[in-house]
Amino acid sequence: MQAYQLQQAPAPADAEEGYKLVAAQDRRHAMDMVVRDFRGRLFQHAFFIVKDSQEAYDAVQEVFIKAMRETRFFDAEFRMKAWLFRVTSNLCYNIVRDRRRRGGILESLGRPDRTNASQMERVQRGERRDEVMASMEKLGKDHREILLLRYYHDLSYAEIADVLDVKLGTVMSRLSRARARLGDVMGPDHPVVLEVLQRRN
C-alpha cells in the first residue's frame, strides 16, 4: 500500500478552474492532477473519522473512483472540492456505522497507524494527533466536522455549506458554537484554541 502523507500543502484556491481547463483537452490528465493534489488532504479527513490508515486509504480510493465516474465532475459549475470532501465524509461515516454494527469498534481503536514514516516521526505525529483527536472526540459530531473542514482543510464558508448541505448562516453559527465548545474542552489558553480564535474568518 502506498501510504498517503499526513501533512500536505493544500491545493491552490483557483486550482479547480485549472483542472477544468486541462480536462477540456485531456480529462484523464486532469483527473491525475486532482488525485495528486487532493489525496493527502482527503486521507487526513478520512483518517480523522475512521481512525485507521487502511480504511482511510480504501475510502479515498473509492472517492476517486466515484469522481472518475461522475460525468459532471469537470463541468463549469460543479464544485469539485466540496463534492470530494462530502463524498469522503459520507463514505467514512458509513464505515464507522458498519463497524459499530459488527461490534468491532474496540478492536479498531487499537490498530496501529500503518505509514512509511520513521518511527520517531510516527511517535511525534501520533502524540500531537492523539491530543487533538482526544479533545475533538469530546465534541459533538457537527462541531468536530465543521472545525476539521474550516481549520484543518481550510475550506471556505461556502464550500463547507456545500459539503454539509446547510445554509451559509448555519455554517457561521455552528462554527461559532464549535469554537466555544473547543475552548471549554481544551482550555481557553491552549495554543490550538488560540489559533482557532485568531482565525475567525
**Beta-strand level of the residues, as a percent range?**
under 5%
Which structural class should the secondary elements be placed in?
A: mainly alpha
The share of residues in helices is: over 70%
Architecture (CATH level 2) name of the largest domain? Orthogonal Bundle
Question: Please, how many helices?
Answer: 10
CATH superfamily of the largest domain: RNA polymerase sigma factor, region 2, helix turn helix motif
CATH class of the largest domain: Mainly Alpha
How many discrete domains?
A: 2
The rounded distance between the terminal residues' Cα atoms is: 38 Å
The CATH topology of the largest domain is: Rna Polymerase Sigma Factor, Chain: A
Number of strands: 0
Topology:
Elements: H1 15-25, H2 27-50, H3 53-69, H4 80-102, H5 105-109, H6 119-136, H7 141-152, H8 157-164, H9 168-186, H10 191-198
Characteristics:
2 domains; 201 residues; Rna Polymerase Sigma Factor, Chain: A
Structure report:
The protein has 201 residues and is an all-alpha fold. It folds into 2 domains: 7-114, RNA polymerase sigma factor, region 2, helix turn helix motif (Rna Polymerase Sigma Factor, Chain: A); 115-201, Orthogonal Bundle (Arc Repressor Mutant, subunit A), CATH 1.10.10.10. Helices cover 72% and strands 0% of the residues. The protein has 10 helices and no strands. It has helices spanning 15-25, 27-50, 53-69, 80-102, 105-109, 119-136, 141-152, 157-164, 168-186, 191-198. Helix 2 (27-50) crosses helix 4 (80-102), helix 7 (141-152) crosses helix 9 and helix 8 (157-164) packs across helix 9 (168-186). The N and C termini lie far apart (38 Å).
